[in-house]
Amino acid sequence: MEILFLCLIVFLFLLAVFDLSVGVSNDAVNFLNSAMGSKAAPLKHIIIIASIGIFIGAAMSNGMMDIARHGIFRPEHFSFYDLLCIFMAVIVTDIILLDVFNTLGMPTSTTVSMVFELLGATFVVALLKMAGDTTGLGLSDLLNTEKALSVILGIFLSVAIAFIFGTIVQFISRIIFSFNYRKGLKWKIGIFGGVASTALIYFMLIKGIKDLSFMTPELKGWINDNTPLILTSCLVFFTLLMQLLHALKVNVLKVIVLMGTFSLAMAFSGNDLVNFIGVPLSGLSSYQDYVANGAGDPKTFMMGSLNLPANTPIYFLIGAGLIMVVSLATSKKARNVSKTEIGLSSRGTGEEMFGSSRIARRLVKWSLTLINWVKRVTPLKIRLWLNRRFDSDESITEQGAAFDLIRASVNLMLAGMLIALGTSLKLPLSTTFVTFMVAMGTSLSDRAWSRESAVFRITGVISVIGGWFITAGAAFIGAGILVFLMHLGGHWAIIVIAAAAIAILIRSNRRFRKKKAEEKEDILFQTILNTPEDTDIWDLFKTYVVDQQKQFMIYVSQSYTSITEAFIKENTGVLSRYDRSLEKEKDILKSIRRKETLCLRKLSKEKALEKNAWFHLSNNCCMSMLYNLRRINEMCKEHVENNFLPLPAQYAKDYESIVAQTTELFNDTTSTLDISDTDMVPILRSRCDDIKDQIAEIYHRLYDHLHDGDTSSMTVMYVYLNMLQETQELVSGLRKYLRAYAKLLNTGYRTKRRRVHNA
């Protein structure tokens, strides 16, 4: 049994490696976004600076967050087996939960997830102990819920305080500097750089290095006693230094952003990320105490030794630092999480990651009403002066940057100040929540949320905030369920659940890589958006639109064939799968249309006016064809699910001929799009007319059969008639699309009018 427990402890450390990896992938958003979003330096340099901060913070940390040892539970009342189940449940739940958020690109709090996983697992074990215990222990004797309550309070405080201060400070900063911040920097930049650098130093003193190994109690006391003197000296020194650097033509704002990235990375590593090894280290301490005391019955050996302070070996800290550095440098999911915050705070128009929600629409409407009221009561001269200070046409940003260096500096400086202030006042502010909400507040104040994007940005912010609460609930429930299964199923249940977690993680990473491979076409979209205004992008735009529509034609061809075949063969599974697939394709079409419309705005006015009508007509035709498919699938699915009579063989033969011709027509259309050829369009349109005529003939022949007393079920005949009508509309939509496609590519294209025989 002792060997088995040792293997479980080793396995716990292996899982902790995954946990560190997914943890840094999510928390990287907090210290990378400002530098990445403002393009303060090449990405490689930003990663190197952040990695140095992470390694120093991890390697010099003075130990783990004691919450894993005795912050949530009272270990003297829990056995070695109880705690082993709790620790395994926490690690497994944390891996799965954080990986889900990373895959979705949603930033969340690693501290919140860990606290509530410990709370959920401990709560369930406490209930099990109380059910079989005769000592009269209650929940208050087994659990310590103060930490969890402080975290919940911290969510509300962090969200409100950070957003409000972010909005106010950025508003003041923009008034001082304007978007053309290079004008009038002779004295401003020195003071701003001094204040920002001093704020970051204060943040590092209070939050970043207070628990590092060289921080003795005497040194801490000296820092606390002389904090005003230290800050004043730093303010004077850095003000003079930044003024000197500016005189030497050094971009002081970039220096501030990179300093902030380093300090935040070090603080996160030393105080948050490194805590992921607190759980396996607590498990190791429990095992060592269990073995040292004879390795008796694991269900009766109590773990009061965990009340002692943690003493973490340096090699564990160095190992944790190396794992986090490697994860930061190689994790694509970290970039995915960063993409969410940068997208929500970006000034430019681009693909919106979130849709519209009712509450966002209401908030935008109320905000517009408030803004209009403020405009009415504000004197005209003041409004004009503010508009000049907030004139984004003069914005100075790096190529491809989401925002400028002023906002990036404010994001890092203010986040550091608020976190340090909250720590010194013992307010439970969440570092994740502060950094995210500061960025949202500064982007709102900076007028980055236009009327065309505000509803999507607000929906995104609400989604992220909602995800934080979901994190707490999912962590509590998930860990509770797993620990219940482990506690009752024994060591075999522990092994099976841990193996399942690794399998889920591997599958998630495979799906993520597949999803990224499918999004490669977005490179062309970003290229178009980032192309300077005076550059001709018609060829890029044309390639992008045709490629997207080609993919849609391939989808239509495959879907139409599969749906009709499934109807004839009465395959409910295929029809149900396409019911979901067609709904998803509708969202994809809407997203593509929005992105293409943004690209259309980059064209010259003459070209945009010339191509606008045909561009929108081609998109409308695609959406119309999708609706035809959805109606066909809906009727077929309902018919087959109700086990009604199948389509008679004589009708199925006629219909299969139409399906084959229609599928071939779509395949030939795809080939035409692939070579961007308009010469084939008249031929393809003529084939559309032929198929429509054949469908009309079948339609009339079917009516004749019915009038002659055909005994086939009217239910299947009704479905068949509607399928013919929808197929005819599908082909009509393709015919209209081909004309729009030819006009979009070739202004000299002409078509002859032809009378179409409809049923």
Write up what this structure looks like.
The protein has 759 residues and is mostly helical. It has helices at residues 2-38, 43-59, 67-71, 80-104, 110-132, 139-142, 146-177, 185-208, 217-225, 227-247, 252-271, 278-292, 314-330, 332-345, 358-377, 380-389, 405-424, 431-445, 454-518, 522-530, 538-569, 572-600, 605-641, 649-674, 681-707, 714-745. The N and C termini lie far apart (80 Å). Mean pLDDT is 82; it is low at 752-759.
Oligomeric state of this protein: single chain
**Shape verdict:** flat
- The average pLDDT is 82
Q: Count the E strands.
A: 0
Please compute the radius of gyration using only Cα atoms: 32 Å
Low-confidence stretches: 752-759
Helix and strand succession?
HHHHHHHHHHHHHHHHHHHHHHHHHH
Q: How many separate domains make up the residues?
A: 2
Distance between the termini: 80 Å
Q: Which helices and strands, and how do they pair?
A:
Layout: H1 2-38, H2 43-59, H3 67-71, H4 80-104, H5 110-132, H6 139-142, H7 146-177, H8 185-208, H9 217-225, H10 227-247, H11 252-271, H12 278-292, H13 314-330, H14 332-345, H15 358-377, H16 380-389, H17 405-424, H18 431-445, H19 454-518, H20 522-530, H21 538-569, H22 572-600, H23 605-641, H24 649-674, H25 681-707, H26 714-745
